[in-house]
Specification:
Strand 3 (47-51) and strand 4 form a beta hairpin. The chain has 18 helices and 16 strands. The longest helix is centred in the N-terminal third of the chain and has 17 residues, at 13-29. The protein starts with a strand and ends with a strand. Helix 14 (315-328) packs parallel to helix 16 (351-361). The strands form 5 sheets. The chain has a 5-stranded antiparallel β-sheet. It has 2 domains: 2-251, DNA primase, PRIM domain, CATH 3.90.920.10; 286-392. It has 408 residues and is α+β, with helices and mostly antiparallel strands.
């Protein structure tokens, strides 16, 4: 028996369960809710539905709202979860290894706290601020449905490896390194009593998707903007309080390779750590050292045309960008080549300015990232853009007990 909070009357627990199950059914029968759920599942994600006394078979997929409704049993409050990984055919996971079917993966930071709801909120806000320092602007945050938050960075942000195979092989070890780095970078106050759950970084792990109910709390896993996060209360996640779907949140996509700056710092952090067997270290390998400006159309155009009249108003930014590319992308351009280029240019930069920028940009403790938009605005990029300019490639290096690299 439970108390009615308004009248103090005794209400049978079974009645509460029936009411909750009816509310669940009404929630999932909303066409906009079903569409929001399906937009996250697609046909390349494994889907799982569970309740307090029910779990759908695995693997399953849901290609349409009707497919999803067939997985949700009547008379129960259910959660809808999907795989963090994307697969070419999730239904083959019963017979094939996940790594042979993997098409991609996302980074999920599952932030939970035994010290209360506000502690998880404080930590989530700190993580978002931290990620902003590494040029990550497309971080999505949502209430988990229980007592914590999920921070989501879609896989395109991490697609800055030397090839698609390395990107796929990076899961789950690279997300695990990133989560450990973020935990170490937080202040003791922000991480006190809070856990970033690293158990999610395992093959075929599932996470509750946005607009799913939590099968125990009956609350919605609600998407939030960074501004809404500070004002959020548990009451805001009640199904009857949610009148519309935040499609902007669902449709937000990261820039390709947006997480490259973050990975740069994870590389350095891991390399400073004591090597352990099986630890995978991200590496620039030799790709950045051997990249020439000829392989990057916008820089090649600059070296061919020089500082022409069409670059008026962009010369300073282009120079600084190329100097950053020398350090961040490994362009094989020397300061002497830049000085020679300036001398034969139609609109050369003042010699003192050129000398100062070369000395300053090449000696900064932390170089700025190479910005393709600067080259595009200056008219140096082809219309389709330069993918190699956007982000340096990463490869994976494995270490043995002595910390020495070996190939596998």
């Amino acid at each position: 028996m439970t108390q009615n909070p308004e009248r103090g009357a005794q209400i049978p627990l079974e009645t509460n369960r029936k009411d909750a199950a009816q509310s669940c059914q009404e929630w999932y029968c909303r066409s906009d809710v079903r569409q929001a759920l399906i937009s996250q599942l697609r046909e390349d994600r494994e889907v799982w539905v569970n309740a307090e006394d029910y779990a759908s078979p695995r693997p399953r997929v849901a290609k349409s709202p009707s497919d999803l409704l067939q997985l949700i049993p009547k008379g129960r409050v259910c959660s809808v979860s999907s795989s963090i990984e994307r697969f070419s055919d999730p239904l083959l996971l019963t017979t094939e290894e996940p790594n042979t079917l993997r098409l991609g993966w996302d980074l999920i930071l599952d932030i939970d706290s035994d010290n209360g709801f506000e502690a998880a909120k404080r930590c989530s806000q700190a993580v978002i601020r931290l990620l902003a320092n590494y040029d990550l602007e497309s971080v999505k945050v949502k209430f988990s449905g229980r007592r914590g938050y999920h921070l989501l960075i879609e896989g395109e942000a991490f697609d800055c490896f030397s090839g698609p195979t390395d990107f796929l092989r990076a899961y789950p070890l690279v997300p695990l390194q990133v989560a450990r780095f973020i935990t170490a970078a937080l202040s003791p106050k922000d991480r006190r009593g809070v856990e970033i759950d690293t158990a999610v970084y395992s093959p075929r792990h599932l996470i509750r998707i946005a607009y799913s109910l939590h099968h125990l709390t009956k609350l919605v896993s609600l998407p939030l903007s960074t501004g809404e996060l500070g004002r959020f209360t548990l009451e805001d996640a009640s199904p009857d309080r949610i009148k519309q779907i935040n499609w902007n949140w669902l449709d937000t996509k990261p820039k390709l390779g947006e997480a490259s700056t973050l990975l740069d710092y994870v590389v350095k952090w891991v390399q400073r750590s004591k090597p352990r067997t099986g630890i995978h270290v991200l590496s620039r390998a030799n790709a950045a050292k051997t990249r020439t400006h000829d392989s990057t159309p916008c820089v090649s155009a600059l070296m061919r045309e020089g500082f022409s009249a069409k670059l008026e108003g962009h010369r300073h930014d282009v120079l600084c960008n190329v100097l950053n590319g020398i350090r961040r992308l490994g362009f094989t351009i020397t300061p002497e080549q830049l000085k020679e280029l300036n001398k034969r240019s139609e609109k050369p930069l003042p010699e003192r300015e050129l000398e100062y920028q070369i000395r300053y940009q090449l000696s900064r403790p932390r170089p700025y990232r190479f910005k393709p938009e600067i080259m595009q605005e200056a008219g140096l990029c082809p219309s389709i853009g330069c993918r190699l300019c956007r982000n340096p490639p990463f490869t994976i290096k494995r270490t043995d007990q002595r910390g020495e690299a070996y190939d596998k």
